[in-house]
Write a structure and sequence with these properties.
This protein has a 5-stranded mixed beta sheet with strand order 3-2-1-4-5, sandwiched between helices. It has one domain: Ribonuclease H-like superfamily/Ribonuclease H (Nucleotidyltransferase, domain 5, 2-Layer Sandwich), CATH 3.30.420.10. With 214 residues, it is α/β, with parallel strands linked by helices. Helices cover 32% and strands 19% of the residues.
């Protein structure tokens, strides 16, 4: 046994719908594979993480009887990290942007499709939540990309959420003078995480996640 903080679950979440979605994800993979025989088919996940000049405070080890202190300067300025993860391999991909909206999300999807050469020979099923910019009628979905939306109130099914504690590691208990300073630290951190595929796989590859054919 070990001590763990429970993962909050929304009271409106539907366990039956969640279980059905897990089965549907595997079915979608099978359907795409049949529709495009001979093509590579992978299942990825993506989410956005808001970070800013409001410090993130986290517990640290200190000698018994001492009170840790960190300097903070509370300011409400933000940027967003768009994170993609392939749980089966632990491969990741990131964008750092000032906002979340449909226009930026279209750019991110287009870049993602180019980076991983999506098209007739490679397809990716991308799981994501139902945020407005994810479901907008103005969304432009590149060829080879198939969006699979999570059930409502079900962030615990999102592997990409597991990236954020790792991303936060170098910025906790710190204050930054401006967003550019924070962005540089995040950029360097994302470069490190790109190389830590075994670690990423260990925390994002859920036991029920469908296995893509090699």
């Amino acid at each position: 046994m070990r001590l763990k903080v429970p993962r909050p679950a929304h009271e409106l979440a539907n366990p039956v719908e969640q279980e059905n979605w897990k089965k549907k994800l595997a079915q979608t993979q099978e359907e795409v594979s049949k529709k495009y025989p001979g093509s590579e088919v992978e299942i990825w996940a993506m989410d956005e993480h808001r970070l800013g000049l409001k410090p993130i405070l986290r517990r640290i080890w200190v000698p018994l009887g001492e009170q840790p202190i960190t300097n903070v300067y509370w300011r409400y300025q933000w940027l967003w990290l768009y994170g993609f993860v392939h749980p089966q391999s632990g491969e990741t991909y990131y964008w750092i942007l000032p906002h979340v909206n449909v226009e930026l999300f279209n750019q991110v999807l287009a870049d993602f499709a180019r980076e991983f050469q999506l098209g007739q020979d490679k397809h990716i099923i991308l799981t994501l939540d139902r945020a407005g910019w994810h479901t907008s009628k103005d969304l432009e979905i590149p060829a080879g990309l198939h969006l699979e939306y999570l059930p409502s109130y079900s962030p615990e099914l999102q592997p990409a959420e597991r990236l954020w504690p790792l991303v936060n590691e170098p910025i906790v208990n710190r204050s930054f003078d401006q967003l550019e300073d924070l962005e540089e630290v995040l950029y360097q951190r994302c470069k490190v995480l790109l190389e830590q595929q075994s670690l990423i796989r260990a925390i994002t590859y859920y036991h029920w996640w469908p296995v893509s054919p090699c």
